Amino acid sequence: MSIVVIGKSGQLSFELMRILGDNGVCLGRGDIDITQPQALAEKLDGIKPSAVINASAYTAVDKAETDEAAAALINTTGVQNLAAYCKQAGLFLVHVSTDYVFNGCKGSPYTVNDDIQPQGVYGKTKADGEKALLSLLPDASCLIRTAWVYSSHGNNFVKTMLRLMAEKPQLGVIDDQVGTPTWARGLAEACVFAAQTKTKGVFHWTDEGVCSWYDFALAIQELGIDKGLLQNAVPVNPIPSSQYPTPAKRPHYSVLDKTLTRETFSSLHLTHWRKQLSAMMDELKA
Ligand SMILES: NC(=O)c1ccc[n+]([C@@H]2O[C@H](COP(=O)([O-])OP(=O)(O)OC[C@H]3O[C@@H](n4cnc5c(N)ncnc54)[C@H](OP(=O)(O)O)[C@@H]3O)[C@@H](O)[C@H]2O)c1
User: Fold this and answer.
1) Neighbours of 169 (CB within 10 A)
2) Which stretches of the chain score pLDDT less than 70?
3) Which of 50, 110, 116, 210 has the highest CB neighbour number within 10 Å of its CB?
4) 126 Cα nearest atom in ligand 1
């Protein structure tokens, strides 16, 4: 029996399918509409999976501020529909959420039990999805919150920085937002482990360590030059968030506590973000 992955072109779904291979069935938005309970049930009834991993989400954080209905449809209603289906079908569901469910003011790592208080539409719709999942399927679900995800596939901060560093004479990067980057490969391994072992509960998965976007950008530049992905270093200047206004407010501090993850996912190795970045950039080079 296969594990169904909801999402096809996304960073996480790409890494999930690399791990699962023939043991996974990948359903993009052209294959399944998770906003329609009947259509969703017909599709999944036909596959009879052993578990479902939801890697789909409305992830355009700024666009969501003016597109709340579309964000809620996928991040809340879609999750609710998936959870309701899994409940009646007796299936285990792994779902991925975000650091943006927190308010970003704590100043020490957020534990899985901390109160959620999203600051923007994306965070609110994801938080509502979490609530729907946990109320419908508390005993047959794994909720994994993550942050700052990147992969060699898709659009993300690492690839944007590499492009801008090759094009611009200098860059300003925010230094007053702190979190932890996450290579989608490791996150995908955690999701597959949870689906295969039916590990239930709420967990946080990021890589190890802490940095600002500015620190992250400097590491991207250093490793990019070392690996021959960039020719020269350009000045990278730290700037406050106030100099880079965005429609959605970002959390200033969104480090996630992984104490429970280290215990429960002990067979998986949490790795420092810089090592993971280096591995992903080796892949980009190849
Ligand atoms: N990226 C980050 O920095 C970050 C940070 C924290 C948490 N997360 C969470 O991590 C998970 C994976 O994120 P990601 O970075 O892999 O996202 P992504 O690259 O933006 O991919 C989003 C996925 O969602 C699917 N999707 C979007 N709208 C859809 C719709 N209307 N109907 C069906 N499917 C739809 C896409 O489907 P198609 O394949 O069909 O296009 C795609 O596979 C998400 O739950 C996200 O909220 C991400």
Assistant:
1) 6
2) 1
3) 110
4) 47
How far apart are alpha carbons 41 and 82 in whole angstroms? 9
Tell me what pLDDT residue 269 has: 87
53: in domain: yes
122 is catalytic: yes
Among all chains, which residue has been given the structure tokens 């208080």? 117
Query: Which ranges in 137-242 belong to alpha helices (H)?
Result: 157-167, 184-197, 213-226
DSSP state of 235: -
How many domains, the chain?
Answer: 1
CA distances for 282 relative to 44, 89, 101, 152, 227, angstroms:
37, 42, 32, 10, 7
In a domain? residue 62? yes
167 lies in some domain: no
User: Which one from 100, 122, 150, 214 is the annotated catalytic residue?
Assistant: 122
| Length reported for the chain | 286
Longest dimension (CA), the chain: 57
**145 CA → ligand 1 middle, Å:** 13
Is 51 contained in some domain?
A: yes
Q: 3-6 and 178-179: which strand pairing?
A: unpaired
CA of 59 to the centre of ligand 1 (A): 6
- For residue 100, the domain's CATH number is 3.40.50.720
Beta strands 201-204 and 141-146 are: parallel
Record the tokens describing residue 258, joined without a space: 């992984």
**pTM passes above 0.90:** yes
Nearest CA to ligand 1 atom 23: 56
Q: Whose CA is nearest to atom 17 of ligand 1?
A: 10
Domain housing 130: 3-156+181-208+250-270
